[in-house]
Write a structure and sequence with these properties.
Elements (H helix, E strand, L loop, with lengths): L5 H8 L7 E5 L4 H12 L3 E6 L3 H10 L7 E5 L5 H15 L4 E4 L15 H28 L3 E5 L3 H4 L5 H21 L4 E7 L9 H9 L9 H13 L7 E4 L7
Parallel strand pairs: 1-2, 1-4, 2-3, 4-5, 5-6, 6-7
Helix pairs in contact: 2-9, 4-5, 5-7
């Protein structure tokens, strides 16, 4: 009778994060910050980008010291491909290589109603949420292919059912799902590419009133904690046979 050893499977087939190098876009706050800490707890060296809030980025960088890993922060606008390309080069220079890319940077826009969404607002949301993911994947592609790396993209429940934030946000997050599917096939088997579609998450982007209303609409009676989304990121990074998937993390609020 064949003996099955989970320990042997884990050793041979599961990606150990300890000592690997990760780049997280928008890692200075919210979900991205939780992802950065989750990676550091696993022993991964972490580089993260921030857009404008340098103080928050420096605070995150300071908190990473307790994990005894290498940590790097880089300012970059993910809408700008040259800035993203420069960011990738900086991270490679400081950490030596890139094994993991987590595309987390995102924005919700100023208005949600179609009649109030300006062309500038549309371009900003699409630029950050969708073009930003494309730019990061493109800039890091050769490095990830060389290292047999992994990509995790942050989509949203809105990308599957429209949501309430606005058509620009829903379109951008649906685009992330399509991009994830395309890259998962194109980069296989060298790189795994997956996405996460969270429901509402308890971050500073939501007011207390909005959080209460969204909690009532969720079967669990609460919205997600950033750490719960980060935990899902770790799952995807530690599994070598999951690619082209979009994992819902919304406590039964939306099921497909």
């Amino acid at each position: 009778m064949q003996q099955y050893s989970f320990d042997k499977y884990k050793k041979e087939n599961t990606m150990e994060l300890n000592g690997l190098n990760a780049l997280v876009s928008g890692g200075d706050k919210g979900i991205g910050k939780a992802v950065v800490f989750a990676l550091a707890k696993k022993g991964a060296n972490v580089a993260f980008s921030f857009f404008s809030e340098k103080e928050k980025a420096e605070d995150t960088l300071g908190q990473l010291k307790k994990y005894n890993v290498k940590a790097v922060m880089v300012q970059a606008d993910v809408r700008n491909y040259q800035q993203v390309k420069d960011m990738v080069e900086q991270v490679k220079k400081k950490l030596g290589r890139i094994d993991i890319l987590v595309n987390n940077a995102g924005t919700s826009g100023l208005n949600s109603a179609l009649e109030k969404i300006s062309l500038e607002d549309w371009n900003t949301v699409i630029g950050v949420n969708l073009s930003g993911v494309f730019n990061c994947c493109k800039a890091a592609q050769s490095e990830l292919v060389k290292n047999k790396g992994k990509i995790v993209n942050m989509s949203s429940i809105a990308g599957k059912m429209g949501g309430t934030i606005g058509s620009h946000y829903a379109a951008s997050k649906a685009g992330v799902i399509g991009l994830t599917f395309a890259l998962a096939r194109e980069l296989a088997p060298r790189v795994t590419v997956n996405a996460i579609a969270p429901g509402p998450v308890d971050t500073e982007l939501l007011s207390k009133e909005v959080k209460n209303n969204l909690s009532k609409a969720t079967p669990f009676g609460r919205i997600a904690k950033p750490e719960e989304i980060a935990h899902t990121v770790i799952y995807l990074l530690e599994n070598d046979y999951v690619s082209g998937e979009v994992i819902n993390v919304n406590a039964g609020r939306y099921m497909d």
